[in-house]
User: Fold these one by one.
Assistant:
Number 1:
Amino acid sequence: MAEPADILAGLAQVPEIAVADAADLDARLLNATTPFVVRGLVADWPMVQAGRRSAGDARDYIAAHARDVPFTVSVGAPGTDGRLFYDDAMQMNFRMARAKLPDIFSKIARMEGQPDAPPVYLASIDLHAFFAGLHEANQVDLGTRTPLASIWIGTKTRIAAHNDVPDNLACVAVGRRRFTLFPREQFRNLYLGPLDHTPAGRPISMVDFHAPDLARHPRFADAVAHGQVAELEAGDALYIPALWWHHVEGLADFNVLVNYWWRDSPRWLGQPQDALNHALLAIRDLPADQKAHWRDLFDHYVFSNNDDVVAHIPEPARSVLAPLTPESAGRLRAFLLRQLSK
């Protein structure tokens, strides 16, 4: 796999911290607003130990816990340097397939060490739904958080810079990974692609980090000035705050990552991306004077949201203008669904 371009060579390293125990990690995560690396956080996992023996041992260990169900796998084209992205026609440059995990692992084993082998990638596989006992034997104590635990398995791959709504603790179990990170406000300088036609549900940077075209993407140099990089070995972990952009590379012939996503906000709240998509549908193409009015309303009801918004309404009658509860959020969701179905 090619190396990142020279423009990325001077990136700052993600700070590293040491944690004494689960309570210490919990406190660090609670107060963190920027990324950090914890070396060796999951070094005692049986999965990490198997991978240190060999990639084959890691695959055998993981397969022994797999449920007898089809897995969804992405298979790219040979000679793409592992990049799972768009092709020249802005279609995906990989195909999706379904197969049992032992069959997928057999394909990976046959290709191991071959130059220009097609990338094979299993993304965001739910640990509980697709494996029995793997999570229980290999997990991080995250205190009272109730995270979504996922496993990511693949050959050498490059995943374009994107962000996720939840906080993220990414733990390298097998192989090596390089993360290139940018603060959330750098989205303008990353040249995001389509919002609705994406490789994995989130908009991605159109910049090729191994060959950035600064004539086409000149502001990428500004993003790099704010970027950080972390190269992780098996057993290491990286905390990625919510909405931070991250470009992810699997550097070994076989790589496994376990990550934990969690949100501090209640699960019954809506997804902000849905609101953005709806605003594109309902507001973006209005006349300028109407857009200005709706911008003012959004600021009033959503972003400022001070006491003056509801002071003139009797408290029992404030409905969805009051702080949301699971019940009022459910009513609002049902109202939106009815409106969208018209």
Number 2:
Amino acid sequence: MSKFGTRAMAQSLAREFGPKGVHVSHAIIDGIIDTEKTKSFGQNTPDAKIDPQGIADSYWHLHTQPRSAFTHEIDIRPFSEKW
């Protein structure tokens, strides 16, 4: 329920502030981020952790999007995740 609350808040903010030129986006980062502290975590599968540079690139893409093609929600997950 709390995740839906976050998403609903982002949608409400987007509707309110979008016409004023403010880009509101809901970013979901679902997985272990590959950092020095997570090196010992048990996932040795290739692409099992999310590359921090990939997260930064995704956020930069949100920042530089043209106003005619705003993304409201982005879901970042590792490649090896089983659905």
Number 3:
Amino acid sequence: MARSKFLVTGGAGYVGSHVVAALRDAGHDVVVFDNLRTGHRESVPETVRFIQGDLQDHALVDSVLADGPWDGVLHFAALSLVGESMQHPFMYMQANAGLGFALVDACVRHGVKRFVFSSTAALFGMTEDPLITEDTPIIPGSPYGESKHMVERALLWADRIHGLRSACLRYFNAAGADPGGRLGEDHTPETHLIPLVIDAALGRRAELQLFGDDYPTPDGTCIRDYIHVTDLAQAHLAALDVIRDRSVVYNVGNGHGHSNMDVIRSVERVTGRRVPWRLAPRRPGDPARLVAGAGRLKAETGWTPRYADLDQIVETAYRWRLAHPQGYRTRLPAEPACT
């Protein structure tokens, strides 16, 4: 891909920052737009132009897009907690769908030709399919999933009517950290399983709660597809090439499932520490198994995960959390002064 200029909304967040790093590593110019509500300024390199702003500020969004031309917009800015969306459904509809519509409209008005959208496997709800493909029926199980689907539909019409080519990338469980140690996962509160298990092993939190052991799976615990965040970032670059000509929808995952107990055992292998845990009741709405069928992405782009092994994923997350016990707030020791 020739050197290009991209706008990344939510580029200071977990996935967004790894995509920014991948774009920069590939030689592209990047501008990050983020309100820092959940992102971290420290995750954006000093060499990358950073604009602190909110998508609700339509005048600011217009002024940023007017400073083009842009070779594409990659959109990560969103609320993303399923449980929270069940408590505040309309907040999620407004933040994710409403502001997503406004951004797509602004991109059309400013002549943007390519748009990559951070979508989700939450579109598929409680499916029993052993492998979820792009053709699996969409039945969102939460307002969060519904809000993402609404933006996917808006992008379909933006292509048909205005020629805005888009890639909707339906993530499964993003995990791990930049193998070079530049970036990692830092959420408040943390809700993702792998960092929670690592922190339990390190004694940084109380014993882990394991929600249910009576699912129809080999060990009774839920099975999920974990995709390394660096592999996920590379999928965005692969999609950008495809959407020069047409819009696409891709599932992004490893295609292999790991149970909650598999994750605990992996963390124990990698850290050499015992993970304290206790059994808790099932959480309402947790499917027994969610595993991606990512064959379409692989066949059409040549993309393939480099960090597909669960221990590899856990190891990168573990190194990040060891080096950054307070996340991006960690201040590493300075070099001693010469005397």
